[in-house]
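A quick aside before the break. I want you to see a complete sequence-to-structure record at least once, exactly as it would be stored in a machine-readable document. Don't worry about memorizing anything.
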Amino acid sequence: MPTTIAALAVLRRDHERLALYVSRDSCGPCHAVWPRVQALFGGDPAWTLLRVDAAAAPEIAGQLLLFSVPALVLYLYGQEASRLVRMIPQAELEAAKARVDRLAE
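That is the input. The structure line, written in tokens, reads:
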């Protein structure tokens, strides 16, 4: 789990498709959304899934301007391709992943 923006930059550079899930331990919705994110991205070998605690990595949350959690930021070739925040419906999760997957083809 990266805790600095520099560590995140290295991961973004080294992985074609990266899903960054930002949450907080005290966030109820974060705990509800995480299993769905994990099931969708964790089982796909094309994706690298990272989970970051915003309290433990405030530099990352601040640099990415993430003021609400949960947040899911999808990167393709190191560039942000999609961002979802707060209560994220399953259909939006799947649609965002499908869009990025299509861009990668």
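Two observations worth writing down. Strands lie at 17-23, 47-53, 71-76, 79-85. The longest helix spans residues 28-42. We'll return to this after the break.
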